[in-house]
Design goal:
56% of the residues lie in helices and 14% in strands.
Length: 212
Amino acid sequence: MDTPDSLAARLFLLAYDTTKQRLVSRSELGYALRAAALADLVLGGYLADHGGKAAPASPAPGLDPVLELVLLEITDSPPRSWRRWVSRRASRILPLVREHLAAERVIKVDSRRVLGLFPVHRITLRRPAEAKRLAEEVRRAVRGGRPAGRVDPRLGALCALAGTAELRTVFSRGERRQYKARLAELGRPVEPVVKALRKTLQAQRAAASSGS
C-alpha cells in the first residue's frame, strides 16, 4: 500500500487512532476533509481566491472522485465563500473518502447495523505503520528548522489542516500552542481555506456549547 496522494485521504489517515482503532474528532472531521479537498484544488491550480470566494481557475482532468465532486459543486454554483464550501455537505464527504480508501485497499471496512437501523462502520488500516509514518512526517515538518518556504506546499497544508482540526493523533494541545506561528506559516499557500476551517469549527463548537 502506498500512502494515498490526496490531502483528504491523508487527513483521514491522520485522524485514525491506531491504538484505539477508530477515527477521532468524528463530529468535526467532515469539515476538515472538505477543507483538505479545497486545499488540494487550490494547490493544484484548479481553484483560486477571488475576493474571499472560491472560483474555478482551470480545467481539472483526471482528479480522484472526491476532488472531482467538490470541484463540480463549485463550478456549477454561483461564487460563494470558502467557509460556505467547507461546511457544505460536510457530513457526506467522510463516507466518500472512506469508500475511496477502501476501494484502493488502504483500509478495510466492516459494516453492520445496530438494532437493524443505524449503520456502524468498523475501519481497519491494512498497514498501520504507513499512518504512523505519515503522522511523524507531519510532526517533523512542524518541529523542524527548515524554512516554511522550502517545505513541500502539500505537506505544509496537511500540517496546517491537522493543527486547525486539532487532531490529537498528531499534535497535543501544548504542541498546537507551541507551534501556532509555524503552523500558520506552513498553511499560508492555502490560507483562505485554513481560515475558513478554523471559523467553521469555532462556530460549531460555540453552537454545541450553547445547546448543552
